[in-house]
Amino acid sequence: MLDVLEARTPPTVALAVAVVAVSTSAILVRWSDAPSVVLALYRVLLTTLLVAPFAFTRYRGAFSAFDRRDVLVATLTGAALAIHFAAYFESLAWTSVAASVTLVQSQPLFVAVGAAAFLHERIGTRKALGIAVAIAGMVAMSAGEFLAGAAVAGSRPLYGNGLAVLGAFMAAVYVLAGRSLRQRVAVVPYVLVVYTACALTLFAVAVAQDLPLTGYGRREWLLFFALAVGPGLFGHTVINWALEHVESSVVSVSLLGEPVGATILALLLLSETPGSATVAGGLVVLAGIYVTAAARA
Question: In the chain, where are the structural domains located?
Answer without folding.
Answer: 8-294
